[in-house]
Every structure is written in structure tokens, then in C-alpha cells.
Design a protein that fits this description.
This protein has two domains: about 30-115, Leucine Dehydrogenase, chain A, domain 1 (Rossmann fold, 3-Layer(aba) Sandwich); about 140-270, NAD(P)-binding Rossmann-like Domain (Rossmann fold). It is α/β, with parallel strands linked by helices. Helix 2 packs across helix 10 (about 270-289), helix 6 packs across helix 7 and helix 6 crosses helix 10. The protein is globular, with a radius of gyration of 19 Å. The protein starts with a strand and ends with a helix. The protein contains ten helices and eleven strands. The strands form three sheets. It has a six-stranded parallel β-sheet. The protein binds nicotinamide-adenine-dinucleotide. The site of nicotinamide-adenine-dinucleotide has 24 residues, from helix 10. Nicotinamide-adenine-dinucleotide (NAD) binds near residues 170 and 272.
């Protein structure tokens, strides 16, 4: 089995971005600028946002983190979004999800100016993505496409199963891989919690993309020998042997699958760093626009 080293690839691509942004600075231009709004202090969200800020530094981007307590009102948040929409110094921004229950997530996502929506969640960008028009691609599927391309993993004519139909991972991933494009042209099956004979769909697939949020859900007996495994899941499982009391595992049984599959992403160090890279690539695109 060959490991798909998302962390290593993301570092390399961040160095490439750094060279580009240093040139901008040498020429007297400002650097690309990404902002993030973080509401509350959910530990997982804190950690994702920290990674995004650190990655901006590595790529030579400016970053701004805007924090609000979990009690922030919806109207204050929408006001903040209005400010970011009209701030010409900021190329793109994200609102870290999930938001507290009293805030209408859809309303917030709709308020983001599509030309600054570097997460690619606004219906304008999602629709363009689905039609194959130029747009910001949702960061996680974007990062996965870049990994498949870098590792020369063929997708054309392959059977792909995407497990999980979320708006940010599973659904856009299934659309992108079925499109007529370089990393695409696959026959995609999107399975979810209501799918019957889930194991059959997985067993028939050359590429398995797991985005469910259930620790080690995909077991060796469910996959075809030689399959390519992309593990999107990030799950905390209790582990008293660790100082922090937990460890991170993906949606696939990594140890069990190593002797059966051809390529696999680890968790952590696989899709996660490439998701952040996707976000940086979108920010660079917004800057260049
Ligand atoms: P979600 O929680 O919004 O949705 C989960 C999906 O899994 C649903 O579509 C549901 O139908 C499906 N599902 C649930 N149980 C199932 C079952 N038993 N059989 C088949 N399908 C089932 O998902 P999400 O936001 O896409 O997140 C999925 C996982 O990926 C989570 O662990 C999340 O933390 C992780 N994630 C990682 C990254 C990254 O950068 N690596 C990015 C986003 C999400």
C-alpha cells in the first residue's frame, strides 16, 4: 500500500504559494488576505481555524481571525459579514461551521459575497461548480482532486463510491468526479444513511471516499482488493494512553486495510491538510480576480 501523504503535498504546495506571494510583496503589492469568523469555542473548530491561520503564514498570506462569543446575535454576525463583503483589503473569508443553534446557518452562508466565498458553499459557487463553470470549489473535494492528480491515480471510467452526502464534502465530491474533466470522468455512486446493500456498492468500487463521521466504519471485508481509499473522517475516540485523552481516527479501519488496498490517506495527515490547501488556492484565486 502506498500512503497518500496529504501533509507533505500540502507543505510542498504551500511553499509554491509562498514563492508567488513573496514575489507580490517584492513588487510592492499586498499579499493575499484570508479572514475567518469563529463563533464560540468548540475545540474542533478552534483547532481547524488555528491550522488555517498557521497555513496562511506558511504560504505568505495575511490572515485575520475574528472571534465572537457563542451568544453573538444573528444580526451582529450578518453585520460583520457585510463589513467583510465591502472590505477591499480582504480577498476571501470563511465562517467556521457549525454555528450555534440560534443562528440560521443558511442565512449566514447566503449573505457571503460569492466573489469572497472561498469555502465555495454559496449556492452561486455550488451551482457553477455543478455546471462545470469557473468557481471556487469546496475546499475538501478540491484538496482530494489535487491529491488524486498528484499521485497519478486514474479516475476515468473507474467506479467510485462516495460515502456520505453532506453539502460540503460528499455531494460536491460526487459531482466533481463525475464531470468531464481531467480528474473526473468516473462512474460515481453516492451512498448514505438510507442506502440498502451499502457493502455491495463499496465492494464494487475502485475508489472509496469515506465522509461519514463514524470511526473506522469501512472494514477490510467491505472493499475490493487494490482499491484506493480516501478517508475524510476526523473522529475523536477516547484514549487514556494519550495526554489529551483522545486520538483521531478516520472513517476507515486504517490498520486493517493496509494489506488490502493500493493507496490510502492517513488520519491525521491526509485529507485535512489538503482541505486547508484548497482554501488557500481559492484565496489566491480571489486575490487574482
Ligand atoms: P455530515 O456529518 O454532514 O454527514 C454525514 C453523512 O454520512 C450523511 O450524509 C449521512 O447520510 C452519512 N451517513 C451517516 N451514517 C451513515 C451510515 N451508517 N451509512 C452510510 N452513510 C451514513 O458529514 P461531513 O460534514 O461531510 O463530515 C463527515 C466526516 O468528515 C466527519 O468526521 C467530519 O469531521 C469529517 N470532515 C473532515 C474534513 C477534512 O478536512 N478532513 C472536512 C470536512 C469534514
Amino acid at each position: 500500500m502506498e500512503l497518500i501523504d496529504g501533509r507533505g503535498l500540502a507543505l510542498k504546495l504551500k511553499e509554491d504559494l509562498r514563492k508567488k506571494t513573496d514575489k507580490f510583496a517584492e513588487a510592492g503589492r499586498r499579499r493575499p488576505h484570508l479572514a475567518a469568523i469563529l463563533v464560540g469555542n468548540d475545540p474542533a473548530s478552534e483547532s481547524y481555524v488555528r491550522n488555517k491561520v498557521r497555513s496562511c503564514e506558511q504560504a505568505g498570506f495575511e490572515s485575520t481571525l475574528i472571534r465572537r462569543p457563542s451568544e453573538v446575535s444573528e444580526s451582529e454576525l450578518l453585520g460583520l459579514i457585510d463589513e467583510l463583503n465591502s472590505n477591499s483589503e480582504i480577498d476571501g473569508y470563511i465562517v467556521q461551521l457549525p454555528l450555534p443553534m440560534h443562528i440560521d446557518e443558511q442565512k449566514v452562508l447566503l449573505a457571503i459575497k460569492p466573489s469572497k466565498d472561498v469555502d465555495g458553499f454559496h449556492p452561486m459557487n455550488f451551482g457553477k461548480m455543478a455546471l462545470g463553470m469557473d468557481s471556487f470549489l469546496p475546499a475538501t473535494p478540491y484538496g482530494i482532486l489535487l491529491m488524486l492528480e498528484y499521485y497519478n491515480i486514474p479516475t476515468e471510467g473507474k467506479e467510485v463510491v462516495v460515502i456520505g452526502r453532506s453539502n460540503i464534502v460528499g455531494t460536491p465530491m460526487s459531482i466533481l468526479l463525475s464531470r468531464k474533466q481531467k480528474v473526473g470522468n468516473a462512474t460515481v455512486t453516492l451512498v448514505h444513511s438510507r442506502t440498502q446493500n451499502l457493502a455491495n456498492h463499496i465492494k464494487n468500487s475502485d475508489i472509496v471516499i469515506a465522509a461519514i463521521g463514524i470511526p473506522e466504519f469501512v472494514k477490510p471485508d467491505m472493499v475490493k482488493k487494490g482499491a484506493v481509499i480516501i478517508d475524510v473522517g476526523i473522529n475523536r475516540v477516547e484514549d487514556a494512553s494519550k495526554k489529551r485523552g483522545y486520538r483521531l481516527v478516520g472513517d476507515v479501519d486504517f490498520e486493517g486495510l493496509t494489506s488490502k488496498v493500493s493507496f490510502m490517506t492517513p488520519v491525521p495527515g491526509g485529507v485535512g491538510p489538503m482541505t486547508v490547501l484548497g482554501l488557500l488556492m481559492n484565496t489566491m484565486k480571489a486575490y487574482e480576480m
